[in-house]
Specification:
eight-stranded mixed β-sheet, Jelly Rolls, binds heme C, about 450 residues
Length: about 450
């Protein structure tokens, strides 16, 4: 007995001394998980508030890491696992959660240096190799304090031919003050922001009834071929076809419109955001389109903790659906996006039971979905306009559709692929938001 006990103890001690297999260590077990799942955000210059590149910078966070992964707060991912399969699913496997947790329980040991995997070579700057880059023409001065309404910058593309974009990226000039940015296409003849002067910051005037102007492409006055191209939101992703069979179109003579949401941070700052494009050498076979589904037919009473919304649109032609992106503002609570096929069958594309405005996630289908003509797409949601919602800017307010984050939206972008020459105005039909709001 005694001998066995001692032998067992000695083996364990030897394994421990060698940083052997019995103990979960940072170098051997934890770092590979952090490299794959966390460092994209948790490294200097990215949005994660602390770096997980080294043992020294990770060790003080061991306990919070355990809590964050056990409670599924991290990595950020909001889809209900009961619905859909997503190519960009960020959730950790149960095995990885166990490993991280066991490491913390073991006292967060570093382990042997030879167990350390090679560091991932993260690069700063462009993630794509852009063929062409457009920049806001002048830097914009962001004041130290206050709330800034969404500000738009029109940048002429100078494209004399129809131009197909295979990939795109927005590079914020100053991440401290750029909350989000998106770049949209304004084709020739569009009335959208017709008063904006190229290069000058532009804030759309209020409507006659005092409400905010609506963003493209859901503004009823906008030429429907206005299209959203690419965005920047911390932690969120864009989608372009990895096989490069489908591309987005910038018609000849279009302008690019930068939509900038700035936040102040106590010091005056300057920003000059850029967008880069990878261009197709020949017209592609397919067009990638981002189609909006919008419901404006709501009035949220003051204090209502669970106000329900619903809207529906219909596909007027067959499409291949690639992704969907639920969107509400600060009072958004939950959303489900559902397809109702002409056969009578229904399918939930994505359900987000605890929506968080800080994370505008695109949910990319694991397998592209064939959606027949006549299929309806429905959005079901709730808003929390009560005091309990810590993000609520004003629980006393009656809230309607609007562009600014203190207004609300019931909205989704849906990414679809269609034959190249499809008229984008004929893909999906739904009453315009102004008609809806008047109901
Ligand atoms: C998409 C970006 C992103 C990824 C991926 C990500 N994080 Fe985070 N993480 C953040 C941001 C932003 C914050 C700070 C804001 C917040 O807490 O939501 C944060 C906060 C944290 C915190 C502090 C939590 C708290 O309650 O204060 C921990 C711990 C953490 N992350 C661990 C992880 C781990 C472990 C992983 C990988 C398994 C991971 N994160 C992946 C962006 C990310």
């Amino acid at each position: 007995m005694t001998r066995c006990f001692v032998a067992g103890w000695m083996a364990a001690a030897a394994a421990w001394a060698a940083g052997g297999s019995s103990t979960v260590t940072f170098n051997k077990d934890v770092l590979p998980i952090l490299q794959t799942n966390c460092q994209s955000c948790h490294r200097p210059g990215e949005i994660g508030p602390m770096s997980f590149l080294t043992y020294e910078s990770t060790r003080p966070w061991a306990k919070s890491i355990q809590v964050a992964v056990l409670t599924k707060k991290m990595p950020p991912w909001f889809a209900d696992p009961r619905y859909g399969h997503f190519a960009n699913d960020r959730r950790l496997s149960d095995a990885d959660v166990k490993t991280l947790s066991a490491w913390v329980e073991a006292g967060a040991p570093e382990g042997a240096p030879q167990d350390k995997p090679a560091p991932v070579e993260w690069h700063d700057g462009w993630n794509i190799k852009p063929d062409v880059v457009f920049s806001m023409q002048k830097p914009y001065q962001v004041p130290a304090k206050g709330t800034i309404a969404y500000t738009y910058f029109v940048v002429p593309s100078g494209f004399t031919k129809d131009t197909w974009v295979l990939d795109a990226e927005v590079r914020p000039g100053n991440r401290m003050v750029v909350h989000h940015a998106s770049v949209q296409v304004r084709p020739p003849g569009s009335q959208w922001m017709k008063d904006a002067r190229p290069g000058e910051p532009y804030v759309p005037p209020k409507r006659a009834d005092g409400s905010d102007a609506l963003p493209a492409p859901v503004d009823p006055n906008v030429n429907t071929s206005n299209e959203w191209l690419v965005g920047y939101v911390p932690g969120a992703n864009n989608y372009f076809d990895p096989d490069r069979q489908a591309a987005k179109l910038i018609p000849a003579g279009s302008d690019l419109v930068f939509e900038m949401h700035y936040t102040t941070n106590g010091k005056p700052a300057e920003d000059q955001t850029k967008v880069g494009f990878v261009l197709a050498q020949q017209p592609p076979k397919f067009r990638l389109l981002t189609v909006p589904v919008a419901g404006a037919d709501f009035v949220i009473p003051p204090g209502d903790a669970n106000h329900a919304g619903h809207t529906v649109a219909t596909f007027d032609q067959p499409v291949t659906l690639l992704y969907s992106q639920p969107h509400m503002h600060l009072r958004g609570k939950d959303m489900e996006i559902r397809l109702d096929y002409p056969t009578g069958e229904s399918e939930t594309l994505v359900s987000v039971p605890h929506y968080d405005f800080s994370w505008q996630i695109i949910y990319v289908q694991d397998k592209p979905l064939r959606v027949p003509k006549g299929t309806r797409i429905e959005l079901f949601n709730h808003w929390d306009n009560s005091l309990n919602n810590k993000y609520n800017p004003d629980p006393q307010a009656t809230v309607r559709w609007g562009d600014q984050s203190w207004d609300e939206m019931l909205f989704a972008w849906v990414g679809v692929v269609v034959p190249r020459d499809t008229d984008p105005a004929k893909v999906i039909s739904q009453p315009k938001v102004n008609e809806q709001a008047a109901r």
